[in-house]
Amino acid sequence: MTAYDVWGERKKVGPFDPTTAIERKEGCVIIHADRRDEDGRLIHYKVLNDLVRQIMLEGQRHIVLDGVMGHRYIASTANRKDLYIEIHGTPGNNLGAFLDGPTIEVFGNAQDMTGNTMNSGKIIIHGNAWDVTGLAARGGTLLIKGNTGYRVGIHMKEYAGTKPTMVIGGTSKDYLGEYMAGGTIVVLNLNGKVDGSPVGMHLGAGIHGGKIFIRGRVEPHQLGPGAVINQVGEEDAAELDPLVAQFEHAFKTWVPRDWGMWVKISPASSRPFSGHYDPTSI
Amino acid sequence: MGGCGIAGCINMAGGRISGDTIGKMLETMGERENGLGAGYACYGLFPEHRDDYCLQFFFDHEGAKSEVEELLKSLGSIAKDEKVYSHKVKSMRPPFPIIWRYFFNPSQKLEWRGRSDLSNDDLVVQLAMHINADVPGALCVSSGKDMAVFKGNGYSYEISKLFDLGRYSGKMWLSHSRFPTNSPAWWGGAHPISILDWSVCHNGEVTSYGVNRKFVEMAGYRCSVLTDTEVVAYTWDLLVRKHELPIQAAAFAMAPWYHQDIKRLDPESARLATWLRLTYKEALLNGPFSIIVGRREPEVTLIALADRKKLRPLLCGRSVDGKTAYVASEECAVRVVEPSAETWTPNAGSPMMAQAGKGILRVGTEHPFEGVG
Amino acid sequence: MPQHASPKRRMELEAPDRFRPVVDHELCKKCKKCVSECSYRALEFVDGAVKPIGGCVACGRCLSVCPAQCIEIRQIQSMFPPHANFNERVRRGIMSQATTGGVLLTSCGTDIPYPVMFDELLLDAAQVTNPAIDPLREVVETATFVGGRKGRLEVKENGHLHIEKEPGPMVAMDMPIMIGHISLGSVSYNAQKALFAAAKELNILAGSGEGGLHKDFNVFSQNLVSEVASGRFGVTGDYLKRTAAVEIKIGQGAKPGHGGHLPGEKVSALISQTRMIPLGTDALSPYPHHDIYSIEDLQQLISVVKEATEYKVPIGVKIAAVHNVGAIASGIVRAGADFITIDGFRGGTGSTPRIIRDHVGLPIEVAISVVDQRLTKEGLRNRVTVFAGGSIRSSADMIKAIALGADAVMVCTAAMVAMGCRVCQQCHRGVCSWGIATQREELVSRLDPEVAAARVVRLFRSWNEELKEILGAMGIDSVESLVGNRDRLRYFGPNSKIAEIMGVKHVGEGWG
Fold first, then answer.
1. What ipTM was assigned to the predicted interfaces of this complex?
2. Residue C58's domain is classified under what CATH number?
3. How far is A139 from chain C (nearest CA, A)?
4. Domains located in chain B, CATH noted
5. What are the Cα distances from residue C504, in Å, to B223, C171, C321, C483?
6. Who contacts B272 (Cβ-Cβ below 8 Å, separation ≥6)?
7. What average pLDDT does the structure give for chain A?
8. Looking at the 3D structure of chain C, how many domains does it have?
């Protein structure tokens, strides 16, 4: 097992054998990400992800990562639908990037760019996720129990029947759903703050497809260009119910179906910026 | 969103934090650096020399050291001077500068370049700038009381080993690991960038650098460290120490609300917000940034601030017993030293402030002008 | 030489016409609109067809009104044998002066092909190391404030932070553009109304020009900068107190060192009333202000105007860009000005001797850089707002002027082109076929102020969007972070000394 630095040059790994981090049990394989090498350093993410790939290729369906501390790019491009990855600790940036099938469940907080450009699969976070979560997601589901940060759900898009969805149990900050072209984002505001809004400014800036549902107050000045705000109707409730049920199931909690307290953010048009340019031949 | 890692911690209840802690925080975010610079600032380091200015230098050769010593002796008295402990790290490449510190006090009734009205602080600032710009082979790395900066051109763990950070403990630590974007890598360019008791660690790029630089230079500062972060440090010194702006006002000037949002503030706040923007428009730091800033007067304080679009990560944390506050680029840096910490992100453009002896003064989600006095 | 075009054949020693309108008779509908619309009387309907009879100045009016689109304005290729040194322009000038014995008079901005430094500067953009910002979806601010500043703010803390009183008068503009001073007299009532209405709609400032303020335009006064020029036309206490700001005009880019001259023929009843001078007399603006012979005198005038306006509005000074512009600007700031306008030599005018328009002054690109650097060096730059004018032709020029050191730009000619002007350099004759640079009622009525105002509004709005595109591309979200940020420019021209003087690096040079 070798490790490489960013230029592809061999890093000294020494006598430490990363495969000693693997613990095999009945029905699952545990990888102890908090093993330290002879320099006292945590195993590098490349090494960890190599181990994960190795075990995936064996056909294992349940992998546990324990003691994760900032390791990046875990399960990126993983594509087995029947795979379940359980993570304890704090996964680093880009968890599940390009994910295409598996389910990842994190018992802790995630960092930035979780679910980056994911195609299908499920990511469940029992905690907070921070900035740029769900960037350019094309399909699959992100369920976050706690709060999220800035620029969440940017450029989510639908195509040929696949649709990405994200349910956030707490709050989100500025630029939620910027450039949205498809899919559904739900913000539940379960953590308390009654007055004030569970989302920030520039909501849905440039939205031209998809919908954002927010359980809570949204003032017109919070909307970004191209976004309109409406009440939640019966059709919307029919779409929301199963999504919210998934959230309840994942976190063993209950979400009130008080649709009167919810608003829907959707595009004013699919071409929000026509009229901005002068195409005259001069 | 990569590039540069920042981490800081402060014990607000009178205790001390070991250099190993900050080293661990930064090391966990090792992906954020590329070996071209790292550094640490420690506050509350020299209780026996609490009131002396600790001037810490890099010297390329003995000649530069003598020249600076002559200069210091002509301007004041040196209570003590010593080699800064360092320990050879095999992976770091020479040359290594001579690293020396002086506990210095300016004379009374001193004249500097025709001016006799300078306070001690002003004099030390002028002295540091002069040495950095005009004395070849010498660089003043830090110039505050009861604090020092340990930095160099290497990985964060190499710098930590070089100075054997574990031998130090302090009330507060700031640290930075570098992935430089537009300036060359050299010992002086690593962060924290420090002047007097201010130290700044910066992740980002100052797109308004040309404007900010002219602003601080008009006020007598000189930029010579070849990194845009320098203007950030000087701007804090100018706005808070010289112009006596409260910290939240200075932070607002550097990361102000948009005019469209100022309109929605109450009239008195809108007035203050507008006039801060107008008066200090050249201090607006444009571009993406997360910065952590440390100061010692009147009490050791940690400030964390993200740009108003929040284009760089910034996370805050607090220990369960409430005694220690943390800031970092990534959550893992906090969790690795404080597994049960409560974490949150401050709002874009809104400073988090924590002060020794007082606690967390602002979490970063409050009204911009709420007093902390 | 007759003031107006003569239908008769030209004298043998006069230069031949430069332009001829050529009608395609197959398409011509014989509506005769072109004949009646041409104010230079260069077309006639004779023997059943429209014929050119000399005197065409290529103002383009006939083209734009012809329903059949059958007119071509042909530039008559040189009737002179080619000579690179004694070029056509030079020979025409000699012939004309030999005939009239007069100082050649002209209008608009210089047409000599001096190098344009704006066209030799390239802007930076953000790549990788800092993100570009999308102005359509994220905030990019272009609001600009005009007024003096004190350099520091005293903030009190007492539960909440606050300031006790506002430091001084400030005027807010939604974009860094001001419509420059164009007097009522040099342009028509309808043209000025259109410009003022556009300024109000855009929430920017427009200069009232040195012709006083017509009472009908009091409604626009909160978007106007009144002008105290050497002739003091219409300058009363009421005029000064009414407008949003006051500017003392020392000079103008197109004619540095020269006063103004509105011939008696253009002093109609309207002009006489507004300027408060007798009907039919020449309106003469002396060359200097006769109460300003030195910088201390300027300080007095600034101070008396501040007193007269009770310190409620910003007071500024406009100068033409001349060789010592840096030092002069520094003196003006120290004399108490809240804003300074630097007008470059390429600026336009309604009437000026050609010798001054074409050969005197400095280009604005260099002038603004020099002023910004000098004021910075003296620690004064953050006390004043600096405007740059003198041929800002597009948003690119505006952006580069800001990067070179201007807080905002002053634009005149471009606004007039939006209203119909074709820059034919005949303003001084007072028969502008577009109804802009004339007092003749039948011509003025051709300009619809509402239509014209809407065109100017659209022009500057699109420039403002282009400004946002460039700011966003540079990773800057507020225009104040570009002011004087010459690091974001690179010089791509042949003259490295100019680049050095402007404080701009060469293409290929990096940071630091």
1. 0.91
2. 3.30.70.20
3. 24
4. 5-47+159-362 (3.60.20.10)
5. 18, 31, 19, 14
6. B249, B369, C155, C161, C162, C163
7. 90
8. 2
CB contact under 8 A, B331 and A90: yes
What gap in Å lies between CA A217 and CA B99, rounded to an integer? 58
Q: Structure tokens of A142?
A: 């992100």
To test the contact with chain B by mutation, choose from C155, C407, C478, C511 the residue with the greatest count of B C-beta atoms within 10 A, namely C155
Give me the residue from A72, A92, A130 closest to B345, CB to CB: A130
Among A137, A128, A130, smallest CA distance to A155 is for A137
pLDDT in tens, C53-86: 999 999 999 999 999 999 999 998 777 888 999 9
C295 Cβ neighbours under 8 A, 6+ residues apart: C331, C332, C334, C335
Residue C188 lies in a domain: yes
The string of pLDDT tens digits covering residues C205-258 is 999 998 889 999 999 999 999 999 887 888 888 888 899 999 999 989 888 888
Which among C137, C139, C462 has CB closest to A206? C137
Residue C6 has pLDDT above 70, yes or no: no
**Which residues of B are identified as catalytic?**
4
Q: Are C313 and C338 in contact (CB under 8 A)?
A: no
pTM of the model: 0.92
From CA A54, how far away is CA A51, in angstroms rounded? 5
Burial B139-152 (b: 16+ CB within 10 A, else e): bbbbbbbbbbbbbb
Between helix B120-134 and helix B62-75 the angle, nearest 10°, is 160
Same domain, C81 and C193: no
In a domain, C268, yes or no: no
Write phi, then psi, for B223 (nearest 5 degrees).
Answer: -90, 120
- Give percent above pLDDT 90 in chain C: 74
CB B347 within 8 A of CB B311: no
What's the distance, CA B243 to chain centroid? 19
B313–A112: do the CB atoms touch at under 8 Å?
A: yes
Residue whose C-alpha is closest to residue C27's, from C75, C67, C74: C67
- Quick one: C93 and C186 in the same domain? no
Q: Answer yes or no: is pLDDT of A45 > 80.
A: yes
d(CA B160, CA C349): 68
Q: At what angle do helices C364-377 and C395-404 cross, to 10 degrees?
A: 30
Domain that holds residue C34: 12-102
The residue among C68, C102, C136 that closes a domain is: C102
Mutate to test the interface with B, among C480, C487, C490, C504 (most CBs of B within 10 A): C480
Instruction: Give B248's contacts in chain C (Cβ within 8 Å).
Output: 161
- Are C364 and C476 part of one and the same domain? yes
The CATH number for C399's domain is: 3.20.20.70
- Closest residue in B to A132 (Cα) is B1
Domains and CATH numbers, chain A: 128-267 (2.160.20.60)
Does residue C80 share a domain with residue C182?
Answer: no
Same domain, residue pair C66 and C185: no
